[in-house]
Amino acid sequence: MKNTLKILTLLSIVLLAGASTHETSPKGCCQLPAIQEFAALAADKDFVNLHENPMPFTYQTVGGEMITFDATDGQKAYGFMIKAKKESKKYLFIFHEWWGLNDYIKQETEKYYTALKGKVNVIAIDLYDSKVAATREDAAKFVQSVSTERGKAIVEGALKYAGAEAEIATLGWCFGGGWSLQAALIAQQQAKACVIYYGMPEKDVEKLKTLNAKVLGVFASQEKRISPEVVKQFEENMKIAKKSVVVKQYDADHAFANPSNPKYNKEFAEDAFEHSLKFIRKNL
Prior knowledge:
This protein has 10 helices and 8 strands. It is of the alpha/beta class. An 8-stranded mixed sheet has the order 1-2-4-3-5-6-7-8, sandwiched between helices. The chain starts with a helix and ends with a helix. It is 43% helix and 18% strand. The protein has helices at 2-24, 34-41, 45-49, 103-115, 136-145, 148-162, 175-187, 205-208, 228-240, 266-283, and strands at 65-70, 76-82, 90-95, 121-126, 167-173, 191-197, 214-220, 245-250. It has a single domain, classed as Rossmann fold (3-Layer(aba) Sandwich), CATH 3.40.50.
């Protein structure tokens, strides 16, 4: 009888502690990690249908080349790199949207490189291990195939490739928008600026407290999944974490900055690009 009472007492303490944590934690007991939460969207037919299959496009790069580097899990990783005209410790890591590192991303990589006047090394990091999606169904599969551990190992490998003294800015769209923030968290003190285009933000305040980079969030107010409510919560979480975030919201839908998307909005995309460029110049 005494043993039974002891067990019941211990269970009561555990349940009370769990209830207390659930009430006070901004993350919540059932909140998926940000990367897994975005991957779950890939199983949402309505979200998948937001992405029209990209039009065929071939980009002839001026100075970029594909590179290979060692990920920290012992496997090879890949990227598309344009080196600064003069030796530089400044790097911009670009993260592709859910189509993969296709020619549209290479074009955007060169666009940022040129706008930064060739003073920054720019690397578009391949999180799909050389796979590129031509259909939204394949893209959804590829998103779900990227484990948090593999993505982290690729980012860590890119950081080693850049070097311990490198100063890092990150930028990404959609799937890559979420990874832009995760990469900034992984880079710790090396991270100086982070730009998120309609990606799933990190919701764990304790993780956000470790963030060194200033953040610019570019979001679409017509989004129903990464919605204005999600964005507002992100701003509140960043405030709790005492971190800097600037949010730009456009009256558009998901992927409005993607020129291969029928919902592409040239005016908004150009405005967002200028804000992103100014933000990176200021903080990197």
